[in-house]
Amino acid sequence: MAIQDNIDIKTTELEPCRYRVDVEVPATDVDRAIKIVQGEFGRKIKIPGFRPGRAPRHLITRRYADAIADDVRQKLVRSGLETLLARSEFELATMPELAENDMSAIESGRPFSFSLEFDVSPSFELPEYKGMKLSYEKADVEDGDVDSFIKDLLRQRASFDVVNQPAKKGDMLRVGYAAANAERDIPDSAKPLLAAEDTVILLGEPEILPGVIEGLSGRSTDESVSLSVTFPDDHVEDFLAGKTFEYTITIKEVHSPVEPELDDVFAKSLDVESVDELKKHVKAKLTYHMTMEQFKRLEDQVSEYLVANTDMVLPQRLLELEKKRTRASASGHFRQLGLSPEQLDAELDKHEELYENIARKRLTLQYITESIAKAEEIVVGVEEVDEHERRMMEQYGRGGGKQAPNYDRDALRGSISADILRSKVLRNLVSLAEISEQSTGEPTS
Questions:
Q1: 424 three-state secondary structure
Q2: How confident is the model over 331-372, as pLDDT tens digits?
Q3: Which long-range contacts (CB under 8 A, 24 or more apart) does 56-61 make?
Q4: pLDDT tens-digit readout, 16-55
Q5: Is 288 exposed, middle or buried (0-12, 13-18, 19+ CB in 10 A)?
Q6: Whole-structure pTM value
Q7: Would you list the domain boundaries of the chain?
Q8: Which helix (H) or strand (E) holds 117?
Q9: The domain defined by 278-438 carries CATH number 1.10.3120.10
Q10: The domain 8-119: what is its CATH number?
Q11: In the CATH scheme, what is the code of domain 159-258?
Q12: Which of 426, 329, 431 lies closest to 372, judged by CA?
């Protein structure tokens, strides 16, 4: 049901990028809507003593006055919203929200008024984005980089063998321990750190018991060591935080890491035929990653330039929403560190300003890249979004036993599309830039 063109609309700017629209529907349109809804009710409502569709309209209106008024109100608001969207000069950033307290009653012969509030995309001028001057630091993969990478591979594949020698940093010890002055009523989560009959301690960072590297280095099998252990104030286990305990630790075995030999047998375990082939493979891999990092730095320069040279006032509600997303992402990271809910909130609160700056930059860059995409006719195909979503679902092992998380698919695909569009625009701008190469250590212009 369309509202007539003589509808009265008054637009007010509440704040930058936030508008209120007061809508008044003429009485003639209200009466027409009332008759339509009354007719719909007459056809579907059954009243004893009357055949379907034959009940008097005044009886239906009296019995179902509130329901009819609600239905009329919904139709008029929906139709008014459609008319507003069709006429709007704005590029809406959020769907209009109905101001519930600013809605008049439905009465025959009287106009109906309601109000909508919504955010609009900001107006701004793009900076000159073609021919930006970018630079990258010249870097090559050296033989030492390859050797270092392979040494890490050897360390990762080391086995721990029992040795008859004093323990040193990097060794793994089979031990038993107990804290002599532990309190009663110890929470279950803290008990394994206060007593264990047979467990393993790695003499490396992070220390499971603060001070064990120094306290147990140089000690041998069958030795018992007295060690004073003070847990840090910010320890993930609240019960232990800031407390000192006197431990007795008995060393049962010392295991030292034994790295495999760098030979063709080791190379073949990594699916290459020889050590020489392994080195070539590693160099190619490091070169690829270095190239990707250099390109990412060029894209970062483009992003910084665009944001720094664009004067833009952002929709406040969208900025707050982006800030919440940024904080939620940080929250996931801190949870992986094992922080308690109280520690988590305190840590997140420390970085509120950082989250707002990140959100502001991200939202600003989104509007800029969308505007450039329109100007340069850069688009994202449905198949690109499909492929990206498929890869994401594969990571969760859908169909392979690991359940993918619940998610709003439309919201996810919208986010994927925005990410792909931003990447396409940045790549395009890098290709249009003037790129200079600088040697390592040379100051950036």
A1: helix
A2: 877 777 767 777 788 888 888 999 999 999 999 999 999 999
A3: none
A4: 999 999 999 999 999 999 989 888 887 877 777 777 666 7
A5: exposed
A6: 0.70
A7: 8-119, 159-258, 278-438
A8: strand 112-119
A9: yes
A10: 3.30.70.1050
A11: 3.10.50.40
A12: 426
